[in-house]
Amino acid sequence: MCGIIGILGEKDVAPLLVEGLKRLEYRGYDSAGIATLSNGHIQRCRAKGKLANLEDKLGAQPLSGTTGIGHTRWATHGAPTEDNAHPHATEKVAVVHNGIIENYAQLKDELEKLQCRFETDTDTEVIAHLVTHYMTQGMKPQEAANAALDRLEGAFSLALIFAGEHDLLIGARQGTPLAVGYGEGEMYLASDSYALAPLTRKICFLEDGDRVKVTRDGAQIYTNDNTPVERDIRITAQSGAATGKGAYKHFMLKEIHEQPAVIGDTLNSFINPATGTIHMPDDALAALEKAPRLTMIACGTAFYACMVAKYWFEQIARLPVEIDVASEFRYREAPLPEGGVALFVSQSGETLDTLEALRYCKREGQTIMSVVNTIESTIERESDIVLHTLAGPEIGVASTKAFTTQLTTLACLALALSVRTGKVDEQQAAEMAEALRHVPAQTAAVLGDHESPVQDIARELFEAKDMLYFGRGLLYPVAMEGALKLKEISYIHAEGYAAGEMKHGPIALIDEHVPVVVIAPGNDPLFEKAASNVQETVARGGEVLLISDEVGTAQLKDHIKWHITLGDVHPFVMPILYTLPVQLLAYYIAVTKGTDVDQPRNLAKSVTVE
Ligand code: M6R
Fold it and tell me: CB neighbours of 322 closer than 8 A, spacing ≥ 6?
């Protein structure tokens, strides 16, 4: 993963590098570092852990210099120590790197035979030594960088500065993103346009295989066979404003509470204000109408949005849907139907596995559609048809508002398609559209009514070592999402299952030490089956938290230990509204445990390596 930035500035760049790294910290927070040129010499400051540690060090020992690079790390090769923190450097060159150098061991071996001394366990250090080796043989910096780049295998983006070269920044992109920013007398490189938005709105996204020589006068881009190439410079729509927590203790809690507004914004972008009907882009509906099959691919929470959408597309629009996690799909060599549509769901729009799955489907002739939150992301740029979720920046590592706005968008798409293909009649369509229009207000009501009771339940559950989540039909993916939320931020082992699978294995885990969350609204057609699962759990000493409505809670109240009881919810929109209690539960259990909710251990917001 990792975020990289480079600046050729007019004044000292260290503060600008740190500000840029703050906007890249979603890509990793194991360590951070910067390097600048001071009187032509490379100087570095690096710190283990979050960016705040680097800021403290820089406060005590500021770095001067108008040329610099910076890095925020998610460790791949080598523990998250200060020694392994980027930039990696020799006396001649400093480098920051996002990605993995797959042939680093072989290169390291070769360089060690040439008497290079390695000081870190990283793959990145070979780049610094390789460039230095070529420079020692008489090559100029750009030539040496090119020679080194020709030797590297893997997916990476890089930024390099050179001792004595005050007006030079070299960048390269192969598989992971890199953008060039054009300022007034200043030039920039960064992993994304979001990092550069406070500095410039003029952005050029490099393509795979591109290399770039940046000076204060501009940027010259070359393909990897050294052919000069022009790439579009666009004006970014990213906001340069800083995203704060406001009065909230964590970004995650703020983002949970933003859901009524952002679901409303997303919905409004698809509602015809005159008729109240759902309208989706014609090219999206036309492609789906003709498609023999829809293939939906994503990772993590976004994959659970695909799981929910499969029910919607199949039940309402009668369109066959295949879903898969991107990391499996991309290597599966799946045969895809002629005229098929492949739909990719991603908050960041940068998840590498999802992107590679997209590229596979493109090669196989599918129409590429995406549901993305981050504007100008790579997935957006490589899609034929894009539907935006209007969740706004999501900073907490645990996805919340991105998920519910993905569900909102996919519900609108499935409904609009069913109307177009005549699979639902006018009355059914109007009823479902109305159910969707009520979601923002119902979201606000669920959050308002249940936050405090959920805190009480969390205080009873936070010491659990394991938890199980069960749901059926549209609420099976919500059970999976609830378990994922809990494990990633509280580190409690949790699994989500289709409730019907209980007797096929998970029931063996049930005893008085394993709390069981059952998501089963009373007006769900599958409620009676879920009710049996509750009885079977209780019969084996399990303690149940039931998330249901008045009807469901009334029927099971003598058997369950805790309940969260929502008002009436139309079955079509249940997955959106029943997600809210599992988000709150995970959040308050984590807060009660005292874990780092927004930046949990080992994770990063955006997974840009495989
Ligand atoms: O940016 P993406 O939506 O492509 O990210 C996919 C997953 O990495 C992401 O949903 C992850 O599972 C979250 N941490 C879950 O909360």
Answer: 293, 294, 295, 296, 334
Name the token pair of 70. Answer: 């910076």
The label of the residue with tokens 């997209």 reads 358
The residue whose CA is least distant from atom 11 of ligand 1 is 300
Probe residue for ligand 1, chosen from 256, 308, 347, 405 as the CB with the greatest number of ligand atoms within 8 Å: 347
- Per the CB < 8 A criterion, the answer to whether 372 and 405 are in contact is no
Residues of the chain with pLDDT under 70: none
* Residue 588 to residue 545: CA distance in whole angstroms: 15
pLDDT at 274: 84
* Token code pair at residue 513: 């030490």
Q: How confident is the model over 39-67, as pLDDT tens digits?
A: 999 999 999 999 999 999 999 999 999 99
Pocket test for ligand 1, best of 301, 370, 372 (most atoms within 8 A of CB): 301
State in Å: Cα 344 to ligand 1 middle.
12
Q: In ligand 1, which atom is closest to the CA atom of 299?
A: 6
Walk across the sheet containing 544-549 and list its strands. Answer: 493-498, 466-471, 516-519, 544-549, 562-566
Do the beta carbons of residue 260 and residue 440 sit within 8 Å?
yes
The DSSP bridge partners found for residue 160 are: 95, 170
Render pLDDT for 2-23 as a digit per residue (tens, 0 to 9): 999 999 999 999 999 999 999 9
* Among 299, 488, 583, residue to substitute to test ligand 1 (most atoms within 8 Å of Cβ): 299
Rounded Cα gap, residues 310 and 321, in angstroms: 6
CATH of domain 3-235: 3.60.20.10
Q: Which residues are catalytic?
A: 2, 605
How far, in Å, is the centroid of ligand 1 from the Cα of 251? Answer: 16
Rounded CA-CA distance 183/196 in Å is 10
Give the per-residue pLDDT at 481.
98
pLDDT of residue 133: 97
d(CA 248, CA 309): 32
Report the pocket of ligand 1 as residue ranges, CB < 6 Å.
Answer: 299-302, 346-348, 351, 354, 397-399, 484, 488, 606-607
Q: Domain spans of the chain?
A: 3-235, 245-424, 452-601
Query: Do 245-424 and 3-235 have the same topology in CATH?
Result: no
- Sheet of 367-372, strands arranged across: 321-325, 294-298, 341-346, 367-372, 385-388
Distance 338 CA to ligand 1 centre (A): 30
Report the separation in Å between the CA atom of 250 and the middle of ligand 1, taken as the mean of its atom positions: 18
Could you tell me if 333 and 358 are in contact, meaning their C-beta atoms sit under 8 angstroms apart? no
| Nearest ligand 1 atom to alpha carbon 606 | 1
Domain 452-601: which CATH number of 3.40.50.300, 3.40.50.720, 3.10.580.10, 3.40.50.10490: 3.40.50.10490
CATH number of 245-424: 3.40.50.10490
* Beta strand ranges found along 23-164 (DSSP E): 31-38, 41-48, 67-73, 88-89, 93-101, 154-162
Q: Which two tokens stand for residue 85?
A: 């923190």
Please give the structure tokens belonging to residue 435: 């159910």
How many A from CA of 298 to the centre of ligand 1?
9
Q: Which DSSP string corresponds to 272-332?
A: -TTT--B---HHHHHHHHH-S-EEEEE-HHHHHHHHHHHHHHHHTS---EEEEEHHHHHHH
CA–CA separation, 154 and 337 (whole Å): 31
